Amino acid sequence: MDLYIKKAILHAFDPGQPEITFSENLMELTPVMLDYVTKKVEKIYSDDAKRGILSEENHFLSLVTDDFIASTITVANFWREEFILSEKQKQNDLLFVAYELDTQPHFAFIRLSLRDSFSHDFDTTTGQIKIRKTESSLPGAGSAADEAIAINRKTFSYHLLEKRIKYNGKNYNYFSENLLAEKPDISVNKAIKTIKKTAESVAKSYDDNDFAFSQKVQNAVFHAVEKQENLNPEALADQLFADNLTARLAFKDQVKEEIPDKIRFEQMPMEKIEKKLSNQKLSLSNGIEMIVPQSLYEDAETVEFIQNDDGTYSIIIKNIEEIKNKW
Length: 327
Known about the structure:
It is built from ten helices and 14 strands. By secondary structure, the protein is of the alpha+beta class. It holds the Pfam family NA37. It comes from Pseudolactococcus chungangensis CAU 28 = DSM 22330. This is Nucleoid associated protein NdpA.
């Protein structure tokens, strides 16, 4: 990811105050601050991010102009109008960043929920190291943003990490529903879970949902990710239910309710997604648990799964040169 931070500014939201406290000047991007801001922006490009493309007439998009500081104030005030409706509000810092990603201009809004933390001081009078509580601390650089949107100012495509707010006893995706007023695509992470859950549900209705089928689903998704192809529910249906037309059609219809189109992998943390899918994790009824790498799971010379006549399973692990005991 070729990321170049150009500008950043931090504003403060306190639910006990009538207005947001706005910074008048840009952040000084020292090496430490530059590293912090860069990592926060990188975290937006997560497999949990929803994605879409804003229309040119979109109101939220119209608030982002070439005047960076003015844009941050306008967006912050627009955000506050919706967020203040939520129950149990906390203090938040609002980080805005102008940057280039793969040479294209981007604008990011990142909500950072402040929290209590602990540190230590050395008391020279007593010779003791004491723990003290620090209120309203920013989250660490490695943690994901509480909420964020990154917009490509050339293509108007966006990545969105959003959290629902509770208002009048109901939960709302206020960012996409009210601020963007558009429905984003499902995240890659949720799409994978939806595909797995739907496939297993359809298979169960046809008495075909055993551990082998579950692993077949994971295997099919893993290979699509490994090749960095689009995650195509229709192609997966053909793989998973090749011999059952009715099941294949049922899977396509049910998946389309949440995944109307192919899932794209552009600007996704592919290594992280692959790692999640790279091992088959098996929990056996006798208490044994196994982790089998995908590459070995499909190799009959390494591991073999046998269904016995009485309906039980046997697993044969072959050609083991060394066994180590891990504590």
